[in-house]
Amino acid sequence: MTKIFGAPAKVAPTPEAATAPAAPASAPATTTPGIAAAVAAVVAAPVATATLAADNVIAAAPLPEVDVTALLDGLAAKSSEKGLDWKKSIVDLMKLVGIDSSLHARQELAKELHYSGELHDSASMNIWLHKEVIKKIVENGGKVPAGLIH
User: Fold this and answer.
1) Are the CB atoms for 63 and 47 separated by under 8 Å?
2) pLDDT (tens digit per residue) in 94-147
């Protein structure tokens, strides 16, 4: 999922964290999710940054709106593989941003996004995945045509 939705951004430590003992190596780090990695990695789009609020609570800065359509259409125009229809196909969207689009990779993504349908029904799973990925892009500051939002 991080290949599509981005690697977590590092959060600045609070003053208390600077004096606290270091967490064991096996402890998970505190993170803030970034904009879709498919967009951010390819075009280095800005992502939310953590800021320290007055009461020492970490708050995410507002996400900038990113014109995902223009970015992905630009990538499609430059792609050596012609005919990628990222607006309709999760496979084409994954190919366009250079990640594994195999059935196994899509099944793993579906699990991470909590797909409740049959993983071997690839047609239904693909439709659901595409809708869910577009939804996540929009939730993270991406601007897409209204017709893609279901």
Assistant:
1) yes
2) 999 889 999 999 999 999 999 999 999 999 999 999 999 999 888 888 888 888
pTM passes above 0.85: no
Pairwise CA distance, residues 86 & 20, whole Å? 46
Run of H or E residues at 2: helix 2-5
Q: Read out DSSP for 61-110?
A: PPPPPEEHHHHHHHHHHH-SSTT--TTT-HHHHHHHTT---SHHHHHHHH
pLDDT tens, 4-63?
Answer: 555 655 555 544 444 444 444 444 333 333 334 444 444 333 333 333 344 445 555 555
Distance from C-alpha of 112 to C-alpha of 2, rounded to nearest angstrom: 10
- Do 32 and 48 meet the contact criterion of CB atoms below 8 Å apart? yes
Q: Which of 100, 93, 99, 98 is nearest to 127 (CA)?
A: 93
CB-based burial label for 102 (10 Å; 0-12, 13-18, 19+): exposed
Nearest to 92 by CA among 84, 100, 80: 84
Q: At what angle do helices 122-139 and 103-112 cross, to 10 degrees?
A: 50
